[in-house]
């Protein structure tokens, strides 16, 4: 463990990270959002989902620095009397939860199909890649809307309100698997013809173990870069679906739902209800995108 830690701190990746103030700030902001989301009950001043602590008389309170502000609510309150700061923390928890789960699902599906397609080739490769080509002709948000709409049409309304998280993960994840599959397929096609893979075949190692032990480790660098960038896209996709009213239910608002609710009061003067969740979403996505761009350049041997 000590040797692994020492090699990491002596690596070019760590050197590149410490020499970029922008990336350090981006990493700090990302960790701040993730930490606040994980420990939301401890960090948030109040629980926006605790009906016993919500008072409608506290609705539409402006931020603390404006006239009429309340020290209990740093960024003001919404139409239900919930603190905007607390709802942003809990909303980030939902948005990041959906984002991480969607990326993980897309990674597992895309890597599996990419390994199978690149290792076996032939008709299997043709079928998987043609399916990927067809999906690439449709925008990711359209695919997510289609899958979410089908789930709403097939599932009973009461049941859908209980499984909305899994429906969103499925909808967003299925729109992202192609990038992983195409990247892994290209690397697998190169690796399968190398001598160590052919030697593994000769001694009778099953294809599944060859793909997992020998081929997969050689493609994890590009996959991690794609996953980092896709996390930001997944958060935006979830926010878009929730803003359109087909994502997270109003009883469990994410950042997109908060922006949607606040949009109804934007022109009546209660600007803070939608502006602050929108800023939080923009900062989170920007920080994750900057990390993804840095990771792509840092892992590119041609730029070292």
Automatic annotation (TrEMBL):
GO cellular component, one term: plasma membrane
Signal peptide residues on this chain, from the entry's feature table: none
Family: Belongs to the binding-protein-dependent transport system permease family.
Keyword Secreted tagged: no
Membrane topology note: Multi-pass membrane protein
Transmembrane segments: 20-44, 94-120, 132-151, 163-181, 223-251, 271-295
Residue ranges constituting the ABC transmembrane type-1 domain according to the UniProt record: 92-292
Predominant location: membrane
Keywords: Cell membrane, Membrane, Transmembrane, Transmembrane helix, Transport
Keyword Cell cycle recorded: no
Localization (cell): Cell membrane
Gene Ontology terms: biological process: transmembrane transport
Record's protein name: ABC transporter permease
Domain of life: Bacteria
